[in-house]
Amino acid sequence: MFNLPMPSMGTFQPSLTFPASVWYSCHMDTHKLFGFTNVDGTNDPDYFIRFLDEASAEESFQAYKHYSFALLDLQPGQHVLEVGCGTGADAQMMAQRVAPGGRVVAVDGSRHMIAVAQQRAAGCSLPLEFQVADAHRLPFADDSFDASRADRIFMHLESPAQALSEMQRVTRPGGRVLVYEVDFETLTLDLPPREHTRKVLHTWCDSFRNGWLGRHVPALFREAGLEDVRITPATLWLRYPVAIQMIGPATVERACAAGLLTPDEGADWLQRLHQRYVAGLLFCTLTGFLVLGRKPENS
Ligand SMILES: C[S@@+](CC[C@H](N)C(=O)[O-])C[C@H]1O[C@@H](n2cnc3c(N)ncnc32)[C@H](O)[C@@H]1O
Fold this sequence. Notes:
By secondary structure, the protein is an alpha/beta fold. The protein has one domain: Rossmann fold (3-Layer(aba) Sandwich). Helix 10 packs antiparallel against helix 11. The longest helix has 17 residues. It is globular. It starts with 19 loop residues before the first helix and ends in a 5-residue tail after the last strand. 41% of the residues are buried. The structure holds S-adenosylmethionine. The site of S-adenosylmethionine has 20 residues, from loops.
């Protein structure tokens, strides 16, 4: 199982296109940039649904998600918890693997996300239920699940260590715990001039609550006492419109406001980014880490 090769990220061309006008008219408020912390408190919760849908459509996202299911070794009959389930797409895929006899319980802090997840799963007759719950305080008894999983949620949390401790608590002894988290300082972008690109990328990383979390998750697992900790890097190809808008115009706006770039330098950088994108030459990646651990048998 652990020797499964990671599939390729896809062919080198933009998967989705959008007009030039979008680039220059996409002022992103901070709600949109960092709103996953509190989707219901933003002025446009559907924006976050679109963000997740565009990401999930990408081959590189599907690749690591399927790999994570293989790492969890999901089997019919198992009870699995998904923390921060978003639109519920991953929970549905896991439910197919644990049926018959098993069950997936998927929680998210956002009522809007849970409503969308419930709508999308209606009528699918999978063993699946959705609940609103905070990752820091999971409403389940100790040792309730065979496995628990959290995908790109820890970076948004006030206390990732507390959330991991909760996942560990509700997982049975010997059960598996898996977290996938990106590290924003691994963002690569093939775009000159380097000194400007570096400033934009550092601004991007430092804008997030836990921009370095990806590299820190393995230590969290060890500190929590999880055993057999395995780490698999998984690189995402960021070529969907929402991501490029977020990295480009939204971050340049912040870099200019912080005095790191002049307005002319910012505009020039954005123009290069756009030209490269429409020419099908833009290559932008972000690496995350799948971290798998086992709850000790005697805990
Ligand atoms: C980037 S999305 C990832 C969604 C999903 N795991 C996926 O891979 O598509 C992060 C999710 O974490 C949820 N979230 C943020 N803070 C949370 C918390 N304290 N408790 C539970 N969910 C939370 C958000 O509402 C959002 O649905």
